[in-house]
Write a structure and sequence with these properties.
mainly alpha; about 70% helix; globular
Length: about 270
């Protein structure tokens, strides 16, 4: 069974990467301003978050401007966060990968919106340990409509994914709080899994939950082993859910094949 699809036209691949990088530049603005209820993601134009100096066009070129400025603001000379080129480069690579996997289709457009949302959610959760309802709640509705329009999954699978995705983590969070008398999982994680269930269907949930939990456990144990107990005390779960979702997005067919083979005892 082939894992990777045929390589696309090189020009199309480059255009997709450039488009993803440009969108990534805008996502950095969203990441910075969305958690602030008083801020607008449209106005004012991009500026240095420290000296507030507006940026010129040549300071706003994704990735390249960061390298040209050597990671420092041209006006106040303060360091520019690594987040900016990282988000831009991530969106460039994932955008190109989507075109590689799905070509130029409605499915590609829908999953591009999902990936953009997951990048924003992950960075905000890492920085502030919150997952904005402004993304997940509309995302649940968009995921369901996406299933209706694109037909990549049935609307029944999407609807069941919403209820099971939100319901499973709600039960886990409730049991944890009952047994430990403290919150172990925020409501944002629950809504995020419901959104992923809407986009991928209920069949994706076992892998996403298992993969994200295992990854989170390994990284948490590694942090404790290195003596970073405070860092491991409250590890945001959103990035692990998002990472598992991206893996499922590109390898859903292979994952479901292995799960089916294991269930039916085709391999030990």
């Amino acid at each position: 069974m082939s894992i990777l699809p045929p390589f696309p036209n090189t020009i199309l691949f480059v255009i997709a990467a450039l488009f993803g990088a440009i969108v990534g530049s805008f996502l950095n603005v969203v990441i910075l301003r969305l958690p602030d209820a008083a801020a607008s993601i449209i106005y004012p134009a991009s500026r240095c978050p420290r000296c507030r100096q507006p940026l010129s066009w040549h300071e706003n070129i994704p990735v390249i401007s960061y390298l040209y400025l050597r990671g420092r603001c041209r006006h106040c000379h303060e360091k520019i966060s690594w987040q900016y080129p990282a988000v831009e480069l991530t969106m460039a690579l994932l955008s190109a990968a989507l075109v590689w996997k799905f070509a130029l289709t409605a499915v590609t457009a829908g999953f591009f919106l999902l990936i953009a949302a997951l990048v924003v959610i992950s960075v905000i959760d890492i920085r502030l340990q919150i997952i904005p309802d402004a993304i997940t709640l509309p995302g649940i509705a968009v995921g369901f409509l996406f299933a209706l329009v694109s037909g990549h999954i049935t609307w029944r699978d999407s609807l069941l994914g919403i209820f099971l995705g939100g319901g499973i983590l709600s039960i886990v969070a409730g049991l944890y709080q009952l047994l430990r008398h403290k919150e172990g999982m925020g409501g944002g994680d629950i809504k995020l899994l419901a959104m992923l269930g809407a986009f991928f269907g209920w069949q994706s949930l076992p892998f996403i939950i298992l993969a994200s939990s295992l990854t989170g456990s390994v990284i948490g144990l590694a942090a404790i082993a290195l003596g970073k107990r405070l860092a491991a005390a409250r590890i945001p779960f959103g990035p692990y859910l998002a990472g598992a979702a991206v893996v499922y997005l590109f390898f859903a067919q292979q994952i479901q094949w292995y799960l089916s083979a294991y269930t039916h005892g085709a391999w030990p």
